[in-house]
Design brief:
- There is one protein chain.
- This protein has 357 residues and is α/β, with parallel strands linked by helices.
- It contains eleven helices and 17 strands.
- The protein has a nine-stranded mixed β-sheet. It has a six-stranded parallel β-sheet with strand order 3-2-1-4-5-6, with helices on both faces.
- The longest helix is centred in the C-terminal third of the chain and has 20 residues.
- The radius of gyration is 20 Å and the shape is globular.
- The structure holds nicotinamide-adenine-dinucleotide.
Length: 357
């Protein structure tokens, strides 16, 4: 059995006080490496703020702390690096880890600030034979797993449409589009049409996120996606709804007493609630399961479900939504612009979100 040397970039401040200015996701990753047992040895971490790195090192018994992650990469011969910083930093940090010789990099979502950046980090890792994964950990959640099992068992017939309603396309949407890809067997997207509203500045982890959006897209196998974010997200009435030829599955339907997962086959008079053992959209235990899988895949040479190829499919749809709004038209995939249309529209003054006090 191999023992992988693990390091962290961006430990965060306080995992017990999570919020929009910091969730300290490195602590979640570390819990995963701990769950992987003797296969992993957590050795070092880097954070710009030394006290944060020291607190993290103390919690998980790490040998060394750094304030410059380049120094850590040069000194520690890490096999696995967790990148847990804000999205605009992911691209370069991942490239630096790959160039420093890491064998696997587990990066937080969303992938990068631009579509070009997301492609670059995936390309560099592929060229260097580095396993790049993203923490789209919902794939390991029971409600989502059971929904997919029901779908694959033919309980609602052939999938036709996936509907979803939630906060935004990028920060939260990264999970949503990833799960759409999961439900639709990672079939690539064909086209996207979307409109957004961005009148009040909404910076999440330093990145612009629209206030509200409507998006429709189609995958190469004919399955459609439909998403509403912000103001109209609750119109959808479920976190995710899988519509098949012979029934409907809802993950996270609206309503205080609604179960986490339910199914209604054609002809059923009522919904059937599916027991998810107390698991919900966010956990518990999903991050850990994801990390355990990436470690196992590194050991046995297989590909994790959290791989960059899957994340790229989700990310392309996100950036295509914003691009569709910029073009005021349909966007055919593959997406042929590399920037971030939302950020570019703010920069050019085409969108003028009012600054939050
Ligand atoms: N998977 C999920 O469900 C989930 C949940 C919350 C956040 N996230 C994502 O996790 C990522 C990190 O968010 P967070 O809330 O954990 O952040 P955080 O602010 O809690 O921690 C980030 C840390 O990075 C450090 N940092 C910044 N620049 C650095 C540098 N150059 N070198 C070393 N350290 C540096 C900061 O000092 C900070 O301590 C974001 O991309 C966010 O979207 C994912």
């Amino acid at each position: 059995m191999s023992t992988f040397r693990v390091g962290f970039i961006g430990t965060g401040k306080d995992p017990d006080k999570p919020g929009r200015t910091g969730y300290a996701m490195a602590y979640q990753h570390a819990a995963g490496y701990r769950a992987a047992g003797e296969k992993c040895q957590m050795v070092a971490c880097a954070d710009l703020v030394r006290e944060r790195a020291e607190a993290f090192a103390e919690r998980f018994g790490l040998d060394r702390v750094y304030t410059d992650y380049h120094e850590m990469l040069a000194a520690e011969e890490l096999d696995i690096v967790s990148v847990c910083t804000w999205p605009h930093l992911h691209e370069q940090m991942v490239v630096d880890c790959a160039e420093a010789g890491a064998r696997a990099i587990h990066c937080e979502k969303p992938m990068a600030s631009t579509w070009g950046g997301a492609k670059r980090m995936a390309r560099v890792c592929q060229e260097k034979g580095v396993r790049l994964t993203f923490n789209h950990m919902r794939r390991f959640g029971r409600p989502f797993r059971l929904a997919k099992e029901l779908l694959d068992a033919g309980e609602i017939g052939r999938l036709q449409r996936i509907e979803s309603g939630f906060g935004n396309l990028y920060d939260y949407g990264s999970h949503n589009f990833d799960m759409c890809g999961y439900f639709n067997d990672q079939v690539p997207g064909e086209w996207v049409i979307a409109q957004i509203d961005y009148t009040k500045e909404a910076l999440i982890f330093g990145a612009h996120n629209e206030n509200a959006a409507l998006a429709l897209w189609k995958y190469a196998n004919g399955v459609c996606g439909y998403t509403a974010t912000g103001l109209g997200h609750d119109v959808v009435g479920a976190h995710q709804r899988l519509i098949g030829e012979e029934g409907v599955i809802e993950v996270g339907p609206a309503g205080e007493r609604a179960p986490m997962l339910r199914i209604r086959r054609t002809g059923d008079a009522h919904w059937e609630a599916i027991d998810c053992g107390g698991e919900h959209c966010h956990g518990p235990g999903y991050h850990e399961r994801g990390v355990v899988q990436i470690v196992q895949c590194l050991e046995d040479g297989t590909t994790s479900e959290l791989c960059a190829a899957n994340a790229l499919q989700a990310t392309e749809i996100i950036f295509a939504c914003w691009e569709s709004s910029r073009r005021r038209g349909i966007v055919h995939l593959p997406l042929d612009v590399d920037d971030n249309a939302l950020a570019a529209m703010v920069e050019s003054g085409e969108l003028k979100p009012a600054a939050r006090s």
